[in-house]
Amino acid sequence: MSEPMLALTGVHTHIGQYHILQGVDLTVPRGELTVLLGRNGAGKTTTLRTIMGLWHASRGALLFDGRDITQAATPDISCAGIAYVPENMGIFSDLTVRENLLLAARAGEPDTARLEWIFGFFPALKKFWNQAAGTLSGGQKQMLAIARAIVEPRKLLLVDEPTKGLAPAIIQSLIAAFRELKAMETTILLVEQNFGFVKSLGDTVAVMDDGRIVHSGRMDELAEDRDLQQKLLGLSLDTHQ
Amino acid sequence: MILQRLLSGDFPRSRFLTALLLAVFTGLALAPFLFPGARALNVAATVCVFVVLVASYDLLLGYTGIVSFAHTMFYGIGAYGVGLSLHSVGPTWGAVFMGLTIALMLSLALALVIGLFSLRVKAIFYAMITLAVASAFAVLASQLSDFTGGEDGRTFGVPELLRPGFRLVEAEVFGTAINGKLITYYLVFCSALALFLLLLRVVNSPFGRVLQAIRENDFRAEALGYRTVVYRTLANCLSAVVATLAGALMALWLRYAGPQTTLSFTIMMDILLIVVIGGMGTLYGAVVGAALFILAQNYLQALMKQGSDALAAVPLLANLLHPDRWLLWLGVLFVLSVYFFPTGIVGKLRGKSK
Amino acid sequence: MTTTPPAATADAELPRLRLDTPPLLVLPILALLALPLIGSFPTWVTLTVAGLAMGMMIFIMASGLTLVFGLMDVLNFGHGAFVSVGAFTATLVLLPMQGWMQADSVLMNLTALGLAIALAMLVTGALGWAFERIIVMPVYGQHLKQILITMGGMIVAEQMIHVVWGPDQIPLPLPTSFRGVILVGDAAIEKYRLIAVAVGLVVFAAMFLVLNRTKVGLLIRAGVENGEMVEALGYRIRRLFVVVFVAGSALAGLGGVLWGLYKETLTAAMGADIMVLVFIVIIIGGLGSVGGCFIGALLVALVANYTGFLAPKIALVSNILLMVAILLWRPQGLYPVAKR
Questions:
Q1: Which residues contact C274 (CB under 8 A, 6 or more apart)?
Q2: Cβ of B271 under 8 Å from any chain C Cβ?
Q3: Domains and CATH numbers, chain C
Q4: Which of B49, B124, C139, C261 is the most buried (most CB within 10 A)?
Q5: Are B299 and B306 spatial neighbours (Cβ–Cβ below 8 Å)?
Q6: Of C163, C149, C150, nearest to C88 (Cα)?
Q7: pLDDT tens for each residue of B320-350
Q8: Residues whose CB falls within 8 Å of the CB of residue B320, separated by 6 or more in sequence, listed in order
């Protein structure tokens, strides 16, 4: 197996006086979609923010594509090739859809062919191209946030709970988008609570609890093992069909 | 133990600091006898008033984490309240109390309104709004010259007991005449001491502890069920009331109330500087800071003048040392102490004794 | 929670970007209300133009400050120093070029003034850069220290003006061709006020273009809303901030020159004095909002001019009353900036 795209070893993160991550070991294999599951407050978002350099690890090491990014600044991490879709989507509501995407394109202007490809699964973005992003619906904002992360090819995509608060039909279009990305062998680390959403998407899976990874393995194995699901996630599949 | 009760259990906690405080206390308590001369007594009285003024500001800045630029406004209200009342009614005790009451009520009302209005939002909002209100007030005081005497201010007579010509006993005690000036001094001194001890009690009460909790983390304090706005506003009002009293004392001492001695921004700067140099959030810092600062202000400026005169041939350097540039050096000192000396003298002394 | 199916939302027309109009209407309503109170149309025109001119100058001084706050949560209490320094620096050009200023030639007047403004903006821009490095940078994120230290910085700067230029006021007469009034019907309008309005409009337009049409401008607007995300997209917000800080300082310098010529005398404290109005303006406008700052500046200046005529005693506190009224209406200012 080739060297993983991202590897966290023994990462601890403190926020103020709170010890959130307590030794996280996580690897994200190249070209695969890794799902990070866990209940609220398990430390999933903190893990993503630590990778992004928005919070710094107090201990442990983060290796991205063979490069140590433990103490790197957020802009450098971004330029090294990681795109981030935060939980609150982080879109600039005052700017138009076009301007939001423009800022994400470091080459200057977004590539037209790639834009058309994105419009293929997020047609709403084309329609509201010159609208202020703040006027979009929740689902459209999520599409914009993801589009912003993929408007140029990046080595790794971090996505934090994209389905949160979205209607099932919109989730379907997100699934389509992630399938497209998978087809292009994009490496993705996806944080989710909605097991139904990620069950069919994920290649590998890690489960977090209390600031640690408590399980990691292949997604298909977890998807078939109801007992393990019950133990790790405390959910029966019916709730999220 | 009496001392414990008096100091509300908040001891200086440093041997050197204790010695320093004792020195200031004895110096002030015996000032008329130790340092004869009108000027020295004036310095001592100013120190007394500033200790109270700065300590009441520290309640805001150090204990509550609020930056206000309106403290001189409350100070001015106190001075003008007593001054204008004495000026228009005549030198009676009735006038003093009437002026004081009106001033206190005005201060309280203003502090309440400003507090309720802006303390809900960020600290930075409060700083800007107090700056605006205070400067409007200063302009108002100098513009309504029929009433306030404008830029010249008002001089006024004080009740007979406090007049320099009044003699309590004919004989001199330790070579000092027991006259109205002396009585005024002790009125100032005792009031200042009482107010300081009162503030010490406040910050060491449960109320004071809540204030500090709010300063450290207002979200958590709010989560614990404390209405932060209410506490902040109360602190603001209390601080304003004490500042008003300090202003009244100053007016009685000077027998004068005017914009330069009460409302000017220079005084606000002085207060800020003393709090920072003395040590924010300690109250004792106000004592040490005020004593050092007022002494320096009165005696260092003379030194600067000598320096400036000596360097008269060097154009820019002479300007730098000109006594009017006193504020320049204060500003530099202020910036440096915020950086390198954020806990002030008291913090440094306590840090060493640990 | 979105409950509508996507098909419906995707096809339904989105509401047009709704322009928040009530604050925009305040200005004309205020001006119209003042007309019957003042009674005389020519007087009203004179007062309105005076108010607009003053408002434009305040806007120029305040715009940088509000952006600096929006971007990095830094409130620079020393901003007023740039105003004073700008005005005093202009004298370095204007006093030696007194002849050009007094010459009865628009071109010579403009050259002298242009040079003075260029120098003033250069110096205040450089000073802003130094101020950011030395005074502001070490205290990022610490509001209390920030307020104290920038205040201290302003005192030092103001005193340094005294050291360099002496303790006295400096007269700064207007260039010949800008003096006098233009008669429009019965209304007398000072030429210089029209110029101030024009310069203010140019600055506003330029700022509007930069903020809406350039990448740096978009980044600034994005950064005001969510600085973290701007960093996550790979841009250094620190660098952006320095740019804004320097530009804001230079604009304050420009405002200082205009203000100094308007007053025709310079005092070291002029910056600190005007800061009070500037603070009121950026509070009224909504901290971080350039548009709000523009409307707020005009509002404050118009109110000051109208009340100055109608009730001079109230004029002293009219700004405070205006601020209270606006904040009662919109507690976060006219155009609150969406934060995160």
A1: C58, C61, C80, C83, C259
A2: no
A3: 46-329 (1.10.3470)
A4: B49
A5: no
A6: C163
A7: 777 778 788 888 888 888 888 888 888 888 8
A8: B328, C163
CA torsion B122-B127-B132-B138 (nearest 10°) is 150
Q: Roughly how many angstroms between the first and final C-alpha of chain C, as a whole number?
A: 19
The fold of B2-353 is: ABC transporter involved in vitamin B12 uptake, BtuC (1.10.3470)
C57, pLDDT greater than 90: yes
Q: What is the ipTM of this complex?
A: 0.89
CB B344 within 8 A of CB B61: no
Query: Which two structure tokens, joined as six digits, stand for B344?
Result: 């002030």
- Interface membership of C14 toward A (CB under 8 Å): yes
Does position B246 have pLDDT exceeding 80, yes or no?
yes
> Rounded CA gap, C107 and A158, in Å?
60
Q: What is chain C's percent helix, strand, coil content, to nearest 5?
A: 75, 5, 20
Whether residue C123 contacts residue C205, with contact meaning beta carbons closer than 8 Å, is answered with: no
Percent of chain C exceeding pLDDT 90 equals 44
Q: Give the nearest partner residue to C9 out of A52, A139, A148, using CB atoms.
A: A139
**CA gap C316, B140 in Å, rounded:** 7
Partner-chain contact C152 B132, CB within 8 Å: no
pLDDT at C295 over 70: yes
Q: Count of B–C CB contacts within 8 Å?
A: 103
Distances (CA, A) of B75 to B107, B186, C235: 9, 20, 48
Of B119, B115, B71, whose CA–CA distance to B239 is shortest?
B71
